[in-house]
Design the sequence.
């Protein structure tokens, strides 16, 4: 056996330029007009459609599919936007296999649901082909001012809903661009061609939305200040904190937050300049774990292993997403929790994992038995957290499970302050759920401002 | 194996599947391909007098599509053959000589003058063709010139021309009827009175298949304008079946041999036409949609079905359903059915519920114990069959007869006896005893 070279095997440019293009092209290519027409014909136009019930934003799916099949994709897109102004992105990133498509009655008929996500993408793509098109006209200005903190799916949805009613909205975002996780978090092959920004432009086209990027709550703006200067405030700043492994060696180089790496990947103009290890271990079991594992594999990593402390059924990533990982050559290992990161010269070279077991229905514990995996890079994908410090000197907002507590209308405990998206207790870490939060909050804010 | 061979008014063919007079039978090339593919016979595309007609040089066809662009209805503005008469006659003669076991019927359309018919009959007879079909059906173009359906819409003309043909030819005469009339029995009676050996129906139905909303003109559109054309294909089958049945059960025309035409696409379509009295069927649209190979499925399917049912020859099938075609007033009003949904087959689409709820009798639930559930409410169900018709799953909903007890909807006892409208108390013209 040849001696292993000392030091980590981390390189840029592991692939040829063509490989990068192919590997980061659309994961699910859009339907052509013929495919869309054939697929649309499969919809049964169900009564009280189960797909619509399953959609967090209650899109009238049978109606929009029927509009595709009758040759009216523009009308179809308007049906989608009526409930979900970010219908274009949701068509790309929604886990449809656990939402609308899981509910499709075609599953009972023949185990093959109507491809609702791809049809939604077809209609919205046709609509967005022309940047001058917008389904709504902004109502006459009400003179009311609303601050939206966070320009992700929840904030954009809320801002659009309010601007449409004639309110003057200012969106503050800590980053350089709006879009939130759509811009910085979603896997690259799910949203190609800078779609997140196309959609941001589409949302802003309603008018009446002032964008203030590079303004972070608690750093550049305060909740107190916003409450003073605006008639209402919507908080949709997501979960900026990243959970730590709390094991030895976490500070070694090559131990990386998955969300930061993905954000860097999403903003990279040249994917070949990203550092990629030959052997990579991902810790976690959610969508972020799958996304980083598949993307690092597609960037040229040779061996990628996801280590998860429970079994695959318990993973937050859907069975379908796990399949995507497996077909990309990612190995998923169950019942392993990180014990210690191994380093060499300040750089990670491996990870010691402890086998876990469940002693009863819920309690998980280490068995003492360990496994060591070589690793040039270790990605942490074990969840994000709400950072309440950003709320600063404002009156205390009541929290629920570490996130903001809200009522059914997305009102926080503080009068004049609404919240939605991942930062609220009910947050499902789903784009579509965040859009729904923003939509509901906008209606509630509008009602409050109109009273 | 069932014997599919047919002897239709003396015209023999190895199976009852003929190609109708239409583009597929316009030339030797096509007809030979059809015979190679296994078709039992053809009705050669309609011959006329020279000089030959001309066709438009733009689109001749339009279509109605169903799911996945399945062709449901088809429309055409093509005329009779646009090739010289002599060319057609030469080819007919050659093909009949080469394929003696296949039926070769020649469709004809000339002006309503006796001499015109005498002239062409002689020429066709010389080809050795098995028979002629008088095209009294074509609803476009030729009808503007006093031929085709212009003749078929006047029973007296039908009778007159049919008589000429019988008088001046030894060939069997089939009269092809137009559906563009109010009562199909009248032209059929006229054909019989003129001495016709058989009738064939239906020809195409006057139609505008669609409108080009950009050009604001009917389709097919020729330089910005369109004309009505003849409608055919699966969509017209129900109209054709009824007209065939009307002739088959009319006392005056009962027993007149019928060649059934109109949307025959599968063996089952053919069997249905035959059950209502058709001795052969003629096919066009299905062949024009899929090519000649479809005859294999038709022949196999008919044969397999006949074997299954124990029918050994086509004659045993022909007309078998005719006695069961009756008038509404003779339907048994004591026959009570209720819809029943097979919960294991139900895919929960709810179409039965919304159809019944919105448009009919509010007889299907949408919810049971707070869960999505579709079940028939016998107290409301009139047994109309709408739910069966709209259900996307075959055999998921069935109509089950009540043979005893009380109909929970009407509160009336289920009567085993037959009783129809003719004796019903609500009928002002009721009689004492129901006629079967």
Sequence:
């Amino acid at each position: 056996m040849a001696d292993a070279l000392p030091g980590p095997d981390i390189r840029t440019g592991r692939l040829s330029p063509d490989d990068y293009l192919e590997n980061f092209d659309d994961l699910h290519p859009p339907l052509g007009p013929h495919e869309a027409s054939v697929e649309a014909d499969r919809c049964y136009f169900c009564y009280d459609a189960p797909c619509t019930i399953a959609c967090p934003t209650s899109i009238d799916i049978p109606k929009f599919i029927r509009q595709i099949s009758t040759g009216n994709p523009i009308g179809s897109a308007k049906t989608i936007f009526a409930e979900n102004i970010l219908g274009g992105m949701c068509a790309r990133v929604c886990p449809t296999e656990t939402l609308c498509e899981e509910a499709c009655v075609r599953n009972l008929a023949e185990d093959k649901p109507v491809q609702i996500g791809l049809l939604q993408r077809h209609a919205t793509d046709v609509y967005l082909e022309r940047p001058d098109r917008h389904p709504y006209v902004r109502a006459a200005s009400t003179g009311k001012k609303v601050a939206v903190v966070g320009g992700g799916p929840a904030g954009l949805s809320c801002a659009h809903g309010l601007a449409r009613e004639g309110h003057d909205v200012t969106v503050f975002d800590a980053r350089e661009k709006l879009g939130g996780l759509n811009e910085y978090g979603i896997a690259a092959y799910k949203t190609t061609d800078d779609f997140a920004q196309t959609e941001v432009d589409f949302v802003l086209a309603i008018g009446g939305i002032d964008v203030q990027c590079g303004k972070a709550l608690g750093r550049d703006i305060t909740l107190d200040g916003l409450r003073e200067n605006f008639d209402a405030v919507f908080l949709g700043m997501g979960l900026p904190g990243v959970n730590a492994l709390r094991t030895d060696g976490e500070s070694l180089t090559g131990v990386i937050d998955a969300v930061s790496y993905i954000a860097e990947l999403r903003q990279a103009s040249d994917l070949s300049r990203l550092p990629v290890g030959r052997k990579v271990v991902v810790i976690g079991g959610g969508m972020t774990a799958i996304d980083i594992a598949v993307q690092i594999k597609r960037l040229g990593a040779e061996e990628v292993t996801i280590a998860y402390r429970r079994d695959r059924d318990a993973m937050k990533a859907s069975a379908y997403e796990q399949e995507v990982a497996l077909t990309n050559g990612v190995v998923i290992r169950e019942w392993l929790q990180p014990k210690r990161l191994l380093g060499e010269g300040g750089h990670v070279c491996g990870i010691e994992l402890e086998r876990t077991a469940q002693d009863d229905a819920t309690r998980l514990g280490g068995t003492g038995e360990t496994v060591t995996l070589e690793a040039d890079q270790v990605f942490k994908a074990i969840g994000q957290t709400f950072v309440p410090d950003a709320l600063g000197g404002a009156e205390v907002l009541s929290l629920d499970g570490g996130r903001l507590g809200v009522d059914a209308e997305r009102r926080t405990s503080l009068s004049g302050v609404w919240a939605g998206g991942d930062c609220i207790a009910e947050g499902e870490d789903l784009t579509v759920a965040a859009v729904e939060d923003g939509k509901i909050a906008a209606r509630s804010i509008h009602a409050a401002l109109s009273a | 194996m069932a014997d599919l061979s047919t002897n239709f008014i003396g015209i023999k063919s190895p199976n009852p599947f003929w190609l109708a007079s239409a583009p597929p039978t316009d030339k030797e090339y096509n007809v030979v391909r059809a015979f190679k593919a296994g078709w039992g016979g053809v009705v050669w595309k309609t011959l006329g007098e020279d000089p030959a007609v001309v066709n438009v040089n733009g689109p001749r066809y339009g279509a109605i599509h169903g799911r996945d662009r399945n062709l449901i209805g088809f429309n055409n503005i093509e005329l009779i053959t646009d090739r010289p008469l002599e060319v057609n006659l030469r080819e007919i003669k050659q093909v009949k000589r080469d394929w003696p076991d296949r039926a070769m019927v020649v469709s004809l359309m000339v002006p309503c003058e006796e001499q015109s018919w005498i002239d062409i009959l002689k020429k066709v007879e010389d080809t050795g063709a098995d028979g002629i079909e008088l095209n009294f059906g074509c609803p476009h173009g030729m009808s503007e010139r006093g031929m085709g359906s212009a003749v078929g819409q006047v029973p007296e003309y039908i009778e007159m021309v049919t008589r000429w043909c019988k008088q001046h030819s030894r060939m069997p005469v089939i009269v092809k009827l137009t559906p563009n009339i109010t009562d199909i029995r009248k032209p059929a009676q006229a054909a019989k009175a003129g001495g016709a050996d058989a009738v064939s129906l239906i020809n195409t139905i006057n139609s505008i298949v669609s409108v080009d909303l950009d050009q604001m003109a009917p389709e097919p559109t020729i330089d910005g304008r369109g004309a009505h054309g003849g409608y055919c294909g699966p969509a017209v089958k129900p109209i054709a079946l009824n007209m065939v049945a009307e002739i088959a059960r009319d006392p005056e025309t009962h027993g007149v041999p019928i060649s059934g035409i109109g949307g025959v696409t599968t063996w089952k379509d053919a069997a249905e036409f035959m059950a209502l009295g058709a001795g052969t069927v003629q096919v066009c649209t299905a062949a024009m949609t899929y090519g000649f190979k479809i005859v294999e499925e038709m022949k196999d399917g008919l044969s397999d079905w006949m074997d299954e049912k124990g029918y050994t020859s086509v004659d045993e099938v022909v007309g078998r359903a005719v006695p069961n075609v009756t008038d509404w007033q003779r339907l048994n009003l004591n026959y009570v059915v209720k819809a029943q949904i097979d919960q294991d087959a139900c895919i929960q689409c709810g179409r039965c519920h919304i159809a019944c709820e919105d448009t009919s009798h509010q007889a299907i639930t949408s919810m049971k114990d707070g869960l999505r559930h579709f079940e028939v409410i016998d107290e409301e169900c009139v047994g109309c069959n709408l739910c069966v018709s709209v259900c996307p799953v075959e055999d998921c909903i069935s109509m089950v007869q009540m043979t005893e007890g009380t109909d929970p909807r009407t509160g009336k006892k289920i009567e085993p006896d037959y009783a129809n409208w003719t004796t019903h108390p609500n009928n002002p013209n009721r009689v004492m005893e129901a006629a079967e």
Notes: Chain B touches chain A at residues 67-69, 346-351, 353-354, 366, 372, 392-393 (CB under 8 Å). The CA atoms of residues 106 and 132 of chain B lie 5 Å apart. The first strand of chain B starts at residue 6 and ends at 8.
